[in-house]
Design goal:
Elements: H1 2-15, H2 17-22, H3 25-41, H4 50-112, H5 146-158, H6 165-177, H7 180-192, H8 198-207
Length: 208
């Protein structure tokens, strides 16, 4: 608005300053009043004075062009505002969609990996089942190796991976010396005691 007022003042001074200087005060007042009424009330003046009538044609053209320019600026700003608003809404919708998709993914992961039941309490003090020991050093309790695979899988699921070929041999020897159920009960006991090696398991099995 300040720029528009400044441009209007410059036009009056630069474009019509000489003409206004030649007009009488009465004529200049009539032109200025006509400019205001035409621009703001769309009232077209009817001058009887030929000099004012010719001068008015130039003034009217400038006012019409000024109004068209103003309307064009307003329309561009309004269009830019609508585009900006639509872009913001589109971005918000994308963020909402992404949030929903992420939530669905997290839900799927939670369903695929259920959390342990915090209310389920483990055995407070598991002890090896000595009745299932079967300590017979002269008898192979696992001729097919199936018990060893069962014991190895249980050990790795509860304690961790075997750390060396030596541990693998020691665990296989235990599977031949003792029954599988007994060794598994010893694994539960060593887990409770934070034991981490097959050697620890062997000591548990041998000490019962």
């Amino acid at each position: 608005m300040k720029k528009e007022r400044k441009e209007g003042q410059l036009i009056l001074l630069d474009r019509w300053g000489v003409i206004f200087a030649e007009l009488t005060d009465e004529q200049a007042g009539k032109i200025l009043k006509a400019m205001y009424q035409y621009k703001h009330k769309e009232q077209v003046p009817q001058f009887k004075d030929n000099e004012l009538r010719l001068f008015w044609l130039d003034v009217k053209q400038w006012i019409d062009e000024s109004n068209e320019h103003y309307k064009s600026v307003i329309e561009k700003r309004s269009k830019a505002g609508r585009v900006s608003s639509e872009n913001r809404k589109s971005k918000q919708n994308e963020q909402m969609l992404t949030s929903v998709q992420n939530e669905q993914v997290l839900t799927s992961v939670d369903n695929a990996n259920p959390k342990p039941n915090a209310n389920a309490k483990p055995n407070a003090n598991p002890k090896p089942n000595a009745n299932a020991k079967g300590n017979d050093i002269d008898h192979d309790h696992d001729p097919t190796g199936s018990n060893f695979e069962k014991i190895k899988r249980y050990f790795e699921n509860n304690i961790g991976d075997l750390r060396s070929a030596n541990e693998l041999r020691e665990l296989k020897d235990l599977s031949r010396q003792y029954f599988a159920d007994y060794i598994i009960s010893c694994i539960d006991f060593m887990k409770y005691k934070n034991g981490r090696s097959v050697e620890y398991l062997k000591n548990v099995c041998d000490s019962q």
